Amino acid sequence: MAIEYLGLSAINGPLVVLEGVQNAAFDEIVEMTVEKKTKKLGRIIEVYEDKAIIQVFEGTDGLALRNVHTRLTGHPMELAVSEDMLGRTFNGIGEPIDGLGDISSDIRLDINGKPLNPVTREYPRDYIRTGISAIDGLMTLIRGQKLPIFSGNGLPHDELAAQIVQQASLGDDSLSSEQFAVVFAAMGVKYDVADFFRRTFEESGVSDHVAMFINLANDPVVERLITPKVALTLAEYLAFEKGMHILVILTDMTAYAEALREVSSSKGEIPSRKGYPGYLYSELASLYERAGIVKDRHGSVTQIPILTMPNDDITHPIPDLTGYITEGQIVLDRSLYGQSVYPPINVLPSLSRLMKDGIGEGYTRADHQGLANQLFSCYAKVGDARALASVIGEDELSPIDKKYLIFGKEFENRFVGQGNHANRNIIETLTIGWELLGLLPRAELDRIDTKVLDQYYKPTTLGGWSE
């Protein structure tokens, strides 16, 4: 028989203290009834002798020391999961908010997931096409990878996330029997941003294979810590139990980290770098490492976490720790955005560490790796030419440096920039890359095999574009 506890000992922000507790466990879910009518959920985050500290998901508004009845459930937070969740919209703790009724399922899973033996992981190979040339061509997303987007306040990461959801597929030649779906989790977003995502998915006709979890900026901060776990729990079920390939987009991980800092401060914990708790790394890792492919299972979980870097500082603890855990990053650039380049991806600090094993012959095309290496190399030289031009003037540059300036401008406008409605396949992306290299003398192309150059290289004039 469940024991019900009357009253509370203390209330501090999103936390409450309950005394006289018996057999309480860390991470256990509690049900709280306020004045015998309003129900709230909480989670035990600390146990000391007969005292339990509880995080209240819906916030502590309306709670007083004497008007709360608390019941321990005896289990951690669980989510009822089903394939019917695709096409639905939920709040940050997995409750439907689209007016279509509750999810009926006998399968309930612990939102913290189960430890995955590293030996059971398979190495990611096949690529996921996003339709965005800068990503598909130069920092290819591989199934089972975690590839974050580093952005900044005011940059179009929301538009980019929506475009990826609309366009993502299992490559241009994927088998029709392979099922693909998207789990989208938004944390701490404003109402107009949440409405933008919801409206965009509906208008583009992709809502039926997208499950959305929305935590608004005015929702309780504690709920923000649950949202990515709930989303990943559904993703793991669809991938490893139903054999689907799932792309998980998490935005904004900075809001998640700031919620973690706020709760840590409420608990009186000693802060680490910039006030974040010392366990920020392990908390981020517990989310990011839920991506991957498991042996003898047909599905995969691929993650694209999106985070806004405070003051565009890539050394800030959140992007810094994220970079250690994940396999690369996509960096959005404010100066490119100021030049109306969309998506404003700065390719030089961006990379995909798993790209080399998921492209080339049998995956994309045999010339892909060499072309990507050459585009990186040439664009790096553009920076040198621009720096020199700023000192001595563009007219004083050598002919080859002037060609690099032209290449850089066309690369940013035609390869990186493509608009938010262009959905390019991998052949279109590679073709544009070769047209760009045609602006430079063949002698400058030292990162590509001679046989590949013989097959694909053709001198290009600015008027000879064919997109």
From TrEMBL:
Residues 357-457 form the ATP synthase A/B type C-terminal domain. The keyword Ligase does not apply. The keyword Ion transport applies. GO terms for molecular function: ATP binding; proton-transporting ATP synthase activity, rotational mechanism; proton-transporting ATPase activity, rotational mechanism. Residues 9-64 form the ATPase F1/V1/A1 complex alpha/beta subunit N-terminal domain. Gene3D superfamilies: 3.40.50.12240. Transmembrane segments: none annotated. Residues 131-352 form the ATPase F1/V1/A1 complex alpha/beta subunit nucleotide-binding domain. GO terms for biological process: proton motive force-driven plasma membrane ATP synthesis. It comes from the Bacteria. Pfam families: ATP-synt_ab, ATP-synt_ab_N, ATP-synt_VA_C. Keywords: ATP synthesis, Hydrogen ion transport, Ion transport, Transport. Belongs to the ATPase alpha/beta chains family. Produces ATP from ADP in the presence of a proton gradient across the membrane. The V-type beta chain is a regulatory subunit. This is V-type ATP synthase beta chain. The gene is atpB.
